[in-house]
Each structure stands twice: as C-alpha cells, then as structure tokens.
Amino acid sequence: MAFEPPERLVRALAETSDDGDAAWRERLPGLVEEALGACGAAPERVHAPGGRSSVVVLVRLADDVPAVLKLAPPSAAPQAEALALERWEGWGACRLLDRPAPGALLLERLRPDVSLRSLAQAKALLEAADTLRKLWVEPPAENGLPTVAERTAAQAATLEAAPGMYRPLVDAALAARTALLAGPPEELLLHGAYGQGKVLAGDRAPWLAVGPSPVTGERAYDLARLGLDRVEDLVGADTGGSTSRRRLSRLADSLDVDRERLHAWTVFRAVYGGVAALRRGQRAMGEALLEYAGWL
To answer: Residues 260, 262, 263, 269: is their CA dihedral positive or negative?
Structure first.
C-alpha cells in the first residue's frame, strides 16, 4: 500500500512542538508496515479526513474479518486508550482486538463515515447520552490514567497565559475549576473527549464510542464536552443562549448529574477550547466557544 497520512493529521502535527511527535511522523510509513505485518492484516485504505491525533487504516484480517488499525503519536497516549477499551470490553465502545506494535491498536471496525452527527440534534443527544452512560464504570485495576485534576492543570496554565481581552471569561473558568476540584465527588473511568463525532454506527450495537482520551474523575466533566457539540449551530441561532442552558439541564437530568457542576465544567471546557482554537488559528470555532461560555 502506498501510504500517505491524511492532511488533517499532517497539519495538526505541524502545529505541535513535541519532538517525539515529529519523529513519529517521519517514521510513520514504516510504523504502519510494521503493525500490518505484526497482525497479519491486509490494508484497504487510509480513512480520511480522519482525526488530528492518529491515523486509521481500514484493514482485513486473515479470516477476512474487517478491522481498523490505529496508530497514534506518543503525545496521544495510545496506551491509555488501550487501557480504557480493555476495561469496557466492548460495552458502549468499540472492541480492542490486539496491540500489534508500540503505539498501534487493532480495533473492531465500525462504520467510520456514520456518526451521531448524521442524526437530528435531539435524537443525536438522546443516543449520545445513552451510550455515554455505559462508559462510566470503575477505573481499570491497572490505573495509569490521569485524573481530571491532572488533565486540566496544563489547560489551566494555558488559560493563565491568555490575552487580556479574554480575562473575564478566563477568570471565571479558572475559578470554576478551583471550586470543582475542591471536593470531586466521583472517581470513574471517563471517555475524556466525548462528542457526537466520537460515536459511530456499529453492527453488534447501533452506536459505539471510539477515540477516548481517558481520565478518571466525575461524570460532569465528561458530559460537559457533549454539551459543547454543534456549538456553531447554537451560536448562529436567535435563541442560542436559552437553548444552550436548556440543553445542559436536560443532559444533567437524563444522566442524574448535578446541574451546577455540569454548568461549571462546561464553562471551563468551553473557555479552554475557545482559547486553544484561537491559538491554532481556528477563529470561527474559537469565537463560537467563547460566546457560548459567555451565555453560561
């Protein structure tokens, strides 16, 4: 197979200053061949546009079973994803079939082009909440996963360095994080990056989660990311503010999550996401997230 990494991944790797990721990018064609050989898989095609933190190759195993070979750089912590998938054992998430090489995961093949984003918003949120509920379990015994406090510490440092024009929102986000971490009520396994685009159609179950960036902590942190989905549509609507607040309330009630904690984590994740997007040059998304945070 003539291998070319997806352009989205190439751009994302170019934005990072991580030397390990740069070295991984240079070695990627050889890493793909090594992993294919280790699991005895025949490649079909590279999934595009793919994500910003991994390359996904659609493959066939020796018994003609379709599967997915996923390779990620060191910064994406593929070993953490493997821990989470092993803990879920296919319950609410795709199955991990093998770890054929360092940084490589052999996964159950879902329908990579059909996510919850293909559904109407109300139906998508209902299905997303039902799937997310299944993922909230006790962390794996071999728990080398970061906590929410650890994950958000670097994000808080980024916010501290944000330009002064965003200071009111940044200060509100940082204050919310401090208050939330003063007494975290839960220590569960969380997806960490859950959104409608991370839930794909499957055969053994209608919808299954993929692409976790797992952490341990409280459910409100995980649910906050789902509350940010399709934020560009909300910002473009005349009733975006009231719709956003109602959406969070419905999500909290449907999953028995504290409304105030969900609201606070959503503010933090929206402000951090907005500042990070602006730093990457994604002005429209950054401004949409910050406007959303302002409504809350």
So the answer is: positive
Write down the domain spans for the chain.
7-109, 114-295
**Residue 296 in contact with residue 245, Cβ under 8 Å?**
yes
pTM over 0.90: yes
Q: Are 24 and 40 in contact (CB under 8 A)?
A: no
Average pLDDT over residues 140-164: 91
Q: What kind and span of H or E run contains 137?
A: none
CA angle centred on 144, ends 55 and 215, rounded to 5°:
65
As a whole-number percent, the residues of the chain with pLDDT over 70 amount to: 98
The pLDDT tens digits of the residues spanning 15-61 come to: 766 677 778 888 888 999 999 999 999 999 998 877 778 899 999 99
Residue 286 to residue 296: CA distance in whole angstroms? 16
- Could you tell me which residues are beta bridge partners of residue 59? 43, 67
Contact predicate 5/21, CB 8 Å: no
Q: Which class in CATH covers the domain with range 7-109?
A: alpha beta
Evaluate the CA torsion angle 155, 156, 158, 163 in order and state its sign: positive
Q: Domain 114-295 is classified in which CATH homologous superfamily?
A: Aminoglycoside phosphotransferase (APH), C-terminal lobe (3.90.1200.10)
Query: What is the secondary structure of 177-246 as a DSSP string?
Result: HHHHHTS----EEE-SS--GGGEEE-SSSSEEE-----EEE-HHHHHHHHHTTTHHHHHTSTTHHHHHHH
Mean pLDDT of the chain: 91
Residues 6 or more apart whose CB falls under 8 angstroms from that of 251 comprise 125, 129, 223, 226, 227, 257, 262
Q: What is the percent of the chain with per-residue pLDDT over 90, rounded to a whole number? A: 67
